[in-house]
Structure formats: C-alpha cells, structure tokens
Amino acid sequence: MRDPWQLKNLEHYRKYQREYRKRRIKSDPEFRARIQKPANKARRSRDKLTTLIKRHGCILSIELFETLEAISSCQICNKPFSSDTKRCYDHNHTTGQVRGVLCRDCNFGLGHFKDNPEILFKAHEYLRSR
Description:
mainly alpha; elongated
C-alpha cells in the first residue's frame, strides 16, 4: 500500500524511483548483476523482436532472429558490435523481409541511397573514378 504522499505526487515519486534505480545500478555490483541476469536478457531480446515486427513490419521468425543475434559484426564493413556500435536489422521496406545485421553507419548509408542498388552502384563507380 502506498502512502498518501506517494499517491498525491505519483509523477515525482516515479521519477525519484527511476533515478534511485539508476544510481544503485551504477554503485552496487550485486544489484546490477541481479537486474541484468540472463532472464532479463531473454526478455530484452523478446522485446526487440516484438519491436521489429510491430514498429517496422518485419517478417521474422524466432529462429532467424536468434541467428541474427549471434552475428557479431556488421555484414558490410565487418565492424564488431559493441556497446558503442549499435546493431541495426536491415529490412526491405516493401516486403518487410529482414536482410541482415548492419552497424548504424552502414544502415544509414543504405537508407540514404533509398535501398536502390543502381544508385549505390553509381556511387561506387564515382568513388572508384576519383
């Protein structure tokens, strides 16, 4: 049961709880290990899969998703994924089929070329000629 102050100041209370949790994760290794246990990692993977399907309209099986999660580097530039290098799931915007796993830079690059191989080939020729 929450006390009356918490109920009156619910937004402030929730903000305080979020900040407290962040501070505790940074300062308490045992708490951090408990929070980031494998069950939570599995939940985060499931949430990521749900986001890909709902937000981006991707067609993706659990098996394919697990295969893509096992890829450790960008499929274009081979930059290894780390906390600094975010993994992006490249997909065909027309069909929703997932094509592979790319780093953010390569994914943005394809997006800027409108996923058009002809434009990308012209850019390739341009770079080769200079």
